[in-house]
Amino acid sequence: MDRQDPQEEVSPSEPAAGPEAPSAWRAADPWLGLAARVAVGLVFVVSGTFKAAAPAEEFALVIQAFQVVPSADFIQGLATFLPWVEVLLGFALVLGWRTRAAAAAIGGLILVFVGVILSTKVRGIDLPNCGCFGFGFHPSPTQELGLNALWSVCVTQAWRRGADRLSLDGWCLSAEDRRPNKPVLRRAPAASPDAAA
After folding, report:
1. Three-state secondary structure readout of the chain
2. In this structure, are residues 47 and 132 in contact, taking their beta carbons and an 8 Å threshold?
3. How far apart are CA 131 and CA 134, in angstroms?
4. Residue 195: what pLDDT?
5. Tell me: the pLDDT tens digits for 131-184?
6. Angstrom distance (rounded) from CA 66 to CA 116
């Protein structure tokens, strides 16, 4: 008869390993999603508000300095509407409304910002600041790349678990669950040919 090695015995006080084992990370993950969602949302609300509160011509000068948009009319349109897009997406994240869509849209904007800043470095364009916060806060392009890396991590976590805690998405889903079940209309079964005969 095989004898079990005493060293291989598992103490009953030790938690079993595997996917069922409780995890501190699993418990904290949705709260980290909430923190990331609110942090990125507030950043975009503040940066968009700073730019929207200033004359659009100021932000247009910043966009023109990047030398990536050839049309003056398009630059003016971006300077007018982009700040409000940032504000709306930021509020959507803060409130947790359409969380995944808002996080994906903000992630796309972050990628565009990073690409534009990197293109100026490759082309040797020296920018005093990126203009991302309007004229209220002046991070250098290098500092802004570091901040965008941090926002990318946060927006990824917001996309993953941002809707799990204190969100309108979660509230709407729970309200949908509380609704009484609607009666299901069922078709009457078709009569078989034998019954008709």
Report:
1. CCCCCHHHCCCCCCCCCCCCCCCHHHHHHHHHHHHHHHHHHHHHHHHHHHHHHCCHHHHHHHHHHHCCCCCHHHHHHHHHHHHHHHHHHHHHHHHCCCHHHHHHHHHHHHHHHHHHHHHHHHCCCCCCCCCCCCCCCCCCHHHHHHHHHHHHHHHHHHHHHCCCCCCHHHHHHHHHHHCCCCCCCCCCCCCCHHHHC
2. yes
3. 5
4. 52
5. 777 666 677 778 888 888 999 999 999 999 888 888 888 888 776 665 555 544
6. 7
